[in-house]
Design a protein that fits this description.
The protein is an all-alpha fold. It has six helices and no strands. Helix 1 packs antiparallel against helix 5, helix 2 runs antiparallel to helix 6 and helix 4 runs parallel beside helix 6. It is elongated and about 55 Å long. The relative contact order is 0.23.
């Protein structure tokens, strides 16, 4: 997940740097709002590690929801970027933080602590890229 997000953010940075992508004012506004919401959902590594697994997963899902909502408000390159980001983060939707009890989980699996950390780092990469888009 983190590798895919890194490749995605690198591509966005190249397009911005080479001016093949010039965000519109509306794109900048959406990117800024999404970056703010991602930071609110997934702050610093230290703050995330202090949370329970249930809360960590909830915040990752909040980040995914913020990206999906941002995607609903844009078109063109920013929509393509956000769509790829949401797709890369979809494993989060198959994670569970609670024990299965009877073993039936609709296919949900418990992520490792490393997977939580990698997903949170991926969200932080996206936040930084969206902040860059907002100021491009």
């Amino acid at each position: 997940m983190q590798r895919v997000i890194k490749e995605l953010t690198d591509e966005a940075e190249r397009q911005l740097r080479h001016r093949t992508w010039v965000p519109t004012p509306a794109d900048r506004t959406v990117a800024e709002k999404a970056a703010t919401e991602l930071y609110a959902a997934v702050g610093t590594p230290r703050s995330q590690r202090a949370l329970s697994d249930v809360d960590r997963l909830a915040r990752l899902r909040e980040a995914l929801a913020a990206l999906a909502i941002a995607l609903a408000h844009v078109h063109g390159r920013l929509a393509w970027f956000l769509g790829a980001a949401v797709t890369a983060l979809t494993p989060i939707l198959h994670w569970r933080a609670l024990p299965s009890g009877d073993g039936l989980t609709f296919g949900a699996v418990q992520p490792t602590l490393q997977q939580y950390g990698e997903a949170e780092d991926a969200v932080r990469l996206l936040r930084a890229a969206l902040a860059g888009i907002a100021t491009a």
